[in-house]
Amino acid sequence: MPDHALSPTEVGALARDRDRRKFADFARLHANDRRFVSRDNERMILKSGIADFGMDYDEAHGVLLGVASEQKLALESQAEQNVRAFLEHKARKKKISRKEFKEAAAMYRQLVNDGLTRKEAKQRVKAVMMRCGLRPKRIRFLFLPLPIPGARRWYNRIRV
Fold this sequence. Notes:
Blueprint: H1 8-30, E1 36-37, H2 39-51, H3 57-71, E2 74-75, H4 76-90, E3 95-96, H5 98-111, H6 118-132, E4 135-136, H7 153-156
Parallel strand pairs: 1-2, 3-4
Helix pairs in contact: 1-2, 1-3, 2-3, 4-5, 4-6, 5-6
């Protein structure tokens, strides 16, 4: 057997490495000229990695995370995880104040490299709150012991 012949396991490893590189190039092309990758786009890229490039989910997700880090792209799923953690940390009795909500929306925009408008960020933060079962706090004045009627109007105006 010649010295330059490869074993079947080495051939398989080279093919997997080639597929990883092709998938990374595919992900780079798909995320080109964008600041962040939306959840739908991320799902489509991962499906392609699994179906077209023969990768499993963890491998495709790892390659996508590597490309995102290399290209300085933000993934919407990661931004939502960070905002969810922030909201759950700030929530007292499953309620979020208006100030905390605004902080979360600003944080979300920063995490997606300002790829969303303020309105879109507020909509996505509200969606995260709804999925987590969090509610807005009512406004109270120091001299009034009861909550003000309609004090959550700011939250209700945000359309999801």
